[in-house]
Amino acid sequence: xxxxxxxxxxxxxxxxxxxxxxxxxxxxxxxxxxxxxxxxxxxxxxxxxxxxxxxxxxxxxxxxxxxxxxxxxxxxxxxxxxxxxxxxxxxxxxxxxxxxxxxxxxxxxxxxxxxxxxxxxxxxxxxxxxxxxxxxxxxxxxxxxxxxxxxxxxxxxxxxxxxxxxxxxxxxxxxxxxxxxxxxxxxxxxxxxxxxxxxxxxxxxxxxxxxxxxxxxxxxxxxxxxxxxxxxxxxxxxxxxxxxxxxxxxxxxxxxxxxxxxxxxxxxxxxxxxxxxxxxxxxxxxxxxxxxxxxxxxxxxxxxxxxxxxxxxxxxxxxxxxxxxxxxxxxxxxxxxxxxxxxxxxxxxxxxxxxxxxxxxxxxxxxxxxxxxxxxxxxxxxxxxxxxxxxxxxxxxxxxxxxxxxxxxxxxxxxxxxxxxxxxxxxxxxxxxxxxxxxxxxxxxxxxxxxxxxxxxxxxxxxxxxxxxxxxxxxxxxxxxxxxxxxxxxxxxxxxxxxxxxxxxxxxxxxx
Length: 512
Known about the structure:
alpha+beta, two-stranded antiparallel sheet, 11% strand, disordered N terminus
């Protein structure tokens, strides 16, 4: 039979445990719903004020998210708002963490055992970390986003000879008044430390229906010649016979490389300085040339350099593509140097930035037209694999690579409209037309035929009836259908040229 002292001790211990459990429970609830813990501790004024602010804030954000979701998108793309968020979010996190500590201290009873005190402080520390870290990361992401937008996208004072009038605020049925499509020129630049000047050798126009997001990619060869500028452009009079179309009497003495599409970026501004009032006259000249070739207005351009492309792929964690033929890494046929390595044939090959760059640009034993096809598949892989989780978890690396990779005349004010359109593009089919040597004669192209193919491809895309005669589905074009899967791998050769290696293993030049 237990004596009186023992009974009192048992009752006290049970009560202590019950009280401590209640304190922990109310502290956790107070961390989730700030102010509720202080209210239950008897601090009605402070607890009620905090609780009211929290509920009102959540209610406001919920109403905005449901009724005006694009307001949040606009805020995430506005440098001024991002600058405020980069400061406010960490401060809110610290205030929230302070409320957790204050709530626990207000609820904590006296006479806790040593083990209970340790457990209580450990739980409070965990709650503080769970609040501070997300708000701190959010503030950091806001600062990174602000820096990315300000460095990559054009400001209000930028000049362009070809950019359209800024659209209406995102949220309208058609944020581009009077336009059914937006056309963005995608350029792959070969600029780098081992190269002189800039000559885009990847030239793709992405034409998107602003209502449906259906997109057609038009790939032009870099050696396209005799390109007519649009009749209403300032360059039409300067090049009446088409870009670099030489006089027949002087053709033998002319440098054919200077007649080609990819030379326009450098040569037109050099030959006609000041003719295009622009921060980047080379890009504007190239936009006008592509517009003249395809018969479509070119609204904006986005240019990526080679190293940035590689960094972007690595930041994404690599891309997965189907390899239908062995891709050489290195090698130079004119010098008799063979590749130092190969990307082997196979479905769902996961490539890092180094290998993906070779997959997109390798030319040994092939030609520009095969490269055009592979590049479209790499672009598709990037779009398909840039899912929200990947973007969120790798955001800082992606932002850093994008900052060093992109040059564009897309203004900051247009970003919300593009964000609205990107959602549609992600869910819509993408088709492509590659103007290869099987379709056109790049030295003397039939531009009437090219423009007719463009019109047909767009009409079929809008109607959802694209046929191989004009446009190929990227899903089909990039599917696994090997042509040389059983080709033997060549033996080592003393004249082999090593492929460029990742950092620390020296890289000779990147394939041109």
